[in-house]
Task: inverse folding
């Protein structure tokens, strides 16, 4: 910190936090479900203004604060680009029949009673294979939401099952960025970290699966058989359905398993979706472009259009694929339930989420630059005397960074740097720290509406964070599991030096 800068008091550090919480509470009361489509963005900017005024009073220059904001937004740019491409991918996978095929075949395989536990397991497997909870939700997650809705299951509960499985896989996959980042910050190696993390993660996912299994026996699925038949019939009437359509998602998973970065892999998946739309669903694709093409039609084409005929031309196919990628796409079938499933967001549909992320990163950037986050963290560290309280403090700070800095990477990197020396001084092996960073920093990010992860999952699965939060059992249980292990002294590994000193 620059010598001319003053250190914020605890009251000064807490003021922008309390101000934001108050505004968010008011927004929920006034705007309800619409709070994330503008009001919360304004709240984040106003709270950032409060933090900026505090920073200026502490002798920070506006230029420093502005640079901090730009740096913070820059750190989220990868997430923003992925969001845009995911919007395009959902559109192209819809009109190509990939998502409808997933729903169609999924309805034949998945039993209503065991659907929630199966959804969690399937999401876990895909996430372990890809190393990405985001990719899991954007591919199999969307299909599972559609299948579950058809079976008459609450959409928020389905999202909870998908997210629980996706984050379990994300944590345990050696290909996950956070799973590599946490041990790097703590000072241990990847596979030591995964083995040690499994001690708390396996019990957490086991409890989660038991909850979803029991839940399934109490679901009212009396209307499911009729819904299944209606949905499958409506989908088959509209799309060409074949297992060959699964070649695209399999190709995307293969590319990610082969360690291709997420952005090019998703982009390739989007283009393949568009290609499959042209090959297998030409009429659907042309219909998407129909309204856009009327002004370009010849007299003969217009007469065909009025007569209810769809003119399939190269131009209409190009327009249909392009339109599905950049704006919301709907495939009408005449069946309300199916119409609610057959929707693609396009890149335009992601703009509210991107707006929220940018505002959140502005807020987090000001707090970080002005030393407010560090001041809050230092206050919590002072309370940590035992191993249990140290782990609890680490977990609290990880969650706090997810809440205030709005980014899971910051919630892993900053606490990792802060606590690395403290854990070493107290004779605790670095894997204790890396496990806590993942058990809290990674999994709680999705539970916060303005965090990049919460905003992303809400946008992709089309369920509000506050709605799915109570059902993300794995994400809720994980932080408590790691704290309980620490307080009870279960599998708390000591450094060799500490072990030797204890034996002397």
Result:
């Amino acid at each position: 910190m620059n010598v001319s800068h003053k250190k914020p008091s605890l009251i000064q550090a807490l003021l922008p936090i309390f101000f934001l919480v108050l505004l968010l509470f008011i927004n929920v009361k006034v705007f309800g479900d619409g709070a994330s489509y503008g009001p919360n963005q304004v709240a984040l900017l106003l709270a950032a203004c409060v933090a900026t005024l505090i920073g200026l009073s502490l002798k920070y220059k506006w230029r420093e604060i502005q640079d901090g904001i730009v740096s913070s937004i820059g750190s989220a740019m990868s997430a923003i680009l992925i969001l845009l491409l995911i919007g395009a991918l959902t559109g192209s996978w819809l009109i190509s029949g990939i998502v409808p095929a997933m729903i169609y075949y999924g309805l034949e395989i998945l039993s209503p009673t065991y659907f929630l536990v199966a959804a969690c397991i399937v999401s876990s497997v895909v996430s372990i294979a890809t190393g990405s909870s985001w990719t899991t939700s954007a591919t199999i997650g969307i299909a599972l939401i559609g299948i579950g809705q058809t079976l008459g299951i609450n959409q928020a509960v389905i999202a909870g099952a998908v997210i629980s499985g996706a984050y379990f896989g994300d944590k345990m996959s050696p290909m996950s960025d956070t799973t590599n980042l946490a041990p790097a910050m703590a000072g241990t190696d990847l596979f030591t970290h995964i083995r040690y993390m499994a001690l708390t993660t396996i019990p957490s996912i086991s409890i989660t699966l038991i909850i979803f299994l029991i839940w399934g026996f109490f679901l009212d699925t009396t209307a499911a058989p009729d819904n299944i038949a209606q949905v499958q019939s409506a989908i088959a009437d509209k799309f060409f359905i074949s297992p060959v359509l699964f070649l695209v998602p399999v190709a995307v998973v293969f590319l990610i398993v082969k360690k291709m970065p997420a952005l090019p892999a998703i982009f390739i998946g989007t283009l393949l979706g568009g290609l499959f739309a042209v090959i297998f669903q030409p009429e659907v694709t042309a219909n998407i472009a129909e309204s856009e093409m009327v002004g370009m039609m010849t007299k003969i084409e217009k007469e065909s259009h009025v007569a209810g005929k769809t003119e399939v031309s190269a131009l209409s196919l190009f327009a249909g694929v392009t339109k599905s990628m950049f704006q919301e796409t709907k495939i009408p079938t005449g069946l309300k339930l199916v119409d609610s499933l057959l929707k693609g967001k396009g890149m335009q549909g992601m703009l509210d989420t991107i707006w929220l992320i940018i505002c959140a990163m502005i807020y987090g950037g000001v707090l970080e630059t002005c030393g407010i986050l560090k001041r809050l963290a230092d206050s919590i560290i002072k309370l940590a005397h035992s191993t249990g309280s140290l782990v609890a403090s680490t977990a609290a700070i990880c969650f706090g960074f997810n809440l205030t800095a709005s980014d899971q990477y910051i919630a892993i990197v900053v606490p990792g740097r802060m606590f690395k020396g403290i854990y070493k001084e107290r004779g605790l092996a670095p894997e204790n720290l890396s496990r806590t960073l993942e058990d809290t920093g990674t999994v709680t990010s999705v539970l916060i509406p303005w965090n990049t992860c919460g905003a992303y999952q809400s946008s992709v699965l089309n369920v509000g964070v506050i709605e799915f939060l109570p059902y993300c059992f794995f994400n809720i249980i994980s932080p408590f599991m790691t704290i309980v292990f620490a307080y009870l002294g279960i599998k708390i590994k000591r450094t060799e030096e500490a072990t030797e000193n204890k034996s002397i």
Remarks:
- Residues 78-348 form one domain.
